[in-house]
Design brief:
Shape: globular
Strand order of the largest sheet: 3-2-1-4-7-6-8-5
Strand content: 15-25%
Helix content: 40-55%
């Protein structure tokens, strides 16, 4: 027992000293202030700005305007826009555009950022103009000195990640808690680690990397936040660590904000796999690996409580005074870190609520609790006995914002329902005999909120197909997009398809028409039977 307590104290005491050192170091960030003052005077690198977009028309249009207005020589940067199966008419932004290089991915579904970027990098590999890549998500906004700051930062480090700023006031309570934690993590922890020369985690939403590094590694890895963590470790391993620069700032639309944090199980698995390489001459990599097992607030509080209680009654490795001193040092360091993070009182309040959120999240995902919940709600049986089909859809809100959702069609035991999913929230319709009725329920609810789902069944070009099936999900499109229909046969489609020529039908009249037509057809059949 005492051995365990000894090891626990050594672990949290080491973390306390590390945390205190970070808090003190972050008090002096003159290197970033100096970089910002002289950024505009640095010799200019040739930059390739790569913007990834999937149905981000409104924010993409704004970002392109901001990129064109940069205080950076026009002949020193090029902009490449990846449109990944966009169905929100994003292509229309570039009809008369001669400056922006557009790669419009169509006909293969939504391939994702990782594959889209990898495809473009392969095409640009022989381009001798490029010195560094600047990766941006289309939901970001930048100021006019963005590329100048990027240029100055890339002079100091070969790989740099920037800060993401969120409009705090427009978020819900839970999202505010997450945003407060993210701001604290960026403004203090990442900045302090960068000041110490330690590695930061790569963020594909805003990342700058020299072309030579990409060629050395062979590719990038932007599948998800876990892949980005693994990619960051790989950069550290080849002695090209990713640094964090708070001067490189992007603002994200609250509607598109997604809290991103690597899973604990993934971090622990990475740490386990890297143990054989831990004791190497590459100090930055070794420290980066050790940082994967940082303790959370609950572990620290519980461990200190146990150590205080035990050391008060018994003497083991240290006495109660030393444990108390270590806890006091951690408390002081946390106070300094709040000052360094430049957080408001409201944001500090939400940050203090983060441990409660994290505890609820941990409890919710414990295997025993998940098992009980699945049994209570029969989720296991539902998954096993149901057929599911998921598609990406775009919904235009009453405020004319385009938001990405997933539409899941669920069929079980001959009954149908539809689930509408965004982030961690979802809405499920009632159970119906036909899928078309479930879709109608969802459409009416969206209509009540002034929202429109940009799919074929809500488009004025769609005509229902009376094919005799129960769900009635097929139809015809009379649109001339993308080229005139030279065939006499109408184009076939299904209700969940969409295209850039979407034109909203009035009050979902097409679905109503389809249902009414079905009823009339059934009435005619019944009348014919009675006449016999």
């Amino acid at each position: 027992m005492e051995l365990i307590l000894d090891l626990l104290f050594i672990f949290i005491a080491a973390y306390t000293v590390y945390f205190f050192a970070l808090s003190v170091r972050s008090l002096n960030d003159s290197i970033f202030k100096k970089e910002l003052r002289h950024a505009i005077h640095e010799e200019k690198e040739n930059l390739a700005v790569i913007v990834y977009s999937h149905n981000n028309k409104n924010s993409l249009e704004k970002l392109i305007g901001e990129l064109k207005a940069q205080h950076y020589p026009d002949n020193k940067y090029r902009v490449f826009v990846l449109l990944d199966n966009c169905t929100d008419e994003s292509q229309s932004l570039f009809i008369e555009e001669n400056v922006i290089h557009v790669i419009d991915i169509k006909g293969v579904g939504t391939i994702g950022k990782d594959q889209a970027v990898a495809t473009l990098l392969e095409k640009l590999s022989d381009n001798n103009f490029i010195d560094a890549y600047v990766f941006l998500d289309a939901d970001r906004s930048i100021d006019t000195n963005f590329l100048s700051v990027v240029n100055a930062s890339i002079k100091r480090e070969s790989v740099v990640s920037g800060e993401t700023i969120i409009d705090f006031d427009s978020l819900g309570v839970v999202e505010k808690i997450k945003a407060a934690y993210q701001k604290y993590h960026m403004n203090f922890l990442r900045k302090a680690r960068s000041l110490f020369g330690l590695a930061a985690m790569a963020d594909s939403g805003v990342l700058i990397i020299r072309k030579s590094i990409v060629e050395n590694i062979g590719d990038v890895d932007f599948k998800d936040v876990n892949s980005e963590l693994k990619y960051s470790l790989l950069l550290s391993k080849i002695k090209c660590k990713c640094a964090f620069d708070p001067n490189i700032q992007t603002v994200v639309n609250p509607a598109n904000y997604v809290f991103r944090k690597p899973r604990l199980s993934y971090r622990l698995n990475l740490f386990k796999n890297c143990i054989p390489q831990l004791f190497s001459k590459n100090v930055v990599f070794s420290e980066h690996v050790c940082s994967l097992i940082y303790p959370n607030i609950w572990f620290l509080l519980i461990t200190y409580a146990v150590l205080l209680k035990h050391s008060f009654s018994y003497h083991f490795l240290v006495d109660v005074k030393l444990v108390s001193l270590s806890l006091a040092l951690l408390t002081v360091a946390f106070g300094i870190s709040l000052v360094n993070a430049k957080m408001t009182l409201e944001e500090i309040g939400y940050l203090c609520a983060y441990p409660v959120y994290s505890l609820c999240h941990i409890l919710k995902n414990l295997p025993p609790i998940r098992y009980v919940v699945d049994k209570l709600f029969s989720r296991g049986n539902e998954e096993a006995n149901s057929e599911r089909f998921t598609v990406d859809v775009l919904i235009t809100t009453a405020k004319k914002n385009n938001l990405n959702y997933k539409l899941e069609f669920i069929s079980k035991d001959g009954m149908a329902k539809i689930k509408l999913i965004r982030k961690n929230k979802h809405f499920v319709t009632s159970t119906h005999l036909r899928m078309i009725d479930a879709l109608q329920e969802l459409k009416l609810i969206l209509d009540d909120h002034g929202a429109t789902m940009r799919i074929c069944s809500c488009c004025s070009h769609f005509q229902p197909c009376m094919d005799g099936t129960t769900n009635m999900l097929r139809g015809y499109c009379d649109s001339e997009y993308p080229s005139p229909n030279i065939s006499n046969e109408p184009r076939q489609t299904v209700v969940w398809n969409t295209c850039s020529d979407f034109s909203p039908a009035k009050l979902n009249s097409l679905i109503n028409e389809l249902i009414q037509s079905t009823k009339e057809e059934n009435e005619k059949k019944e009348a014919a039977l009675y006449s016999r």
